[in-house]
Amino acid sequence: MIVLDTLTHLIAEHPRVVERYRRETDVVVITIVNRIEVLEGRFATLRKAANGVELQRGQQRLDQAERDLSTFRVLPITDGVATEFDRLRENKIVEQSLCHAK
Fold this sequence. Notes:
By secondary structure, the chain is mostly helical. The chain has five helices and three strands, in the order E-H-H-E-H-H-E-H. It has helices at residues 8-11, 15-23, 32-47, 52-69, 79-101; strands at 2-3, 28-30, 73-74.
């Protein structure tokens, strides 16, 4: 299984990235974070539209992103993932507390 770290070059159809993706025989998946990042970017385009043309272009980009994303399986958040998330979050909270205590 291959987990993509970013979708930017694949969605933009960068030739070498697309070729590498097409040659891959293993299962290629994305994370929920990948999905969120792409969609947030598309939603931001819609929110920032200065005119109707930009709004329509933003809608087209969102629609295309949703089609692109639907081709990938999203890794589920398992018990192990949730446990690791909690551990990392706790470490971050402790580190922040120590920094503020100085």
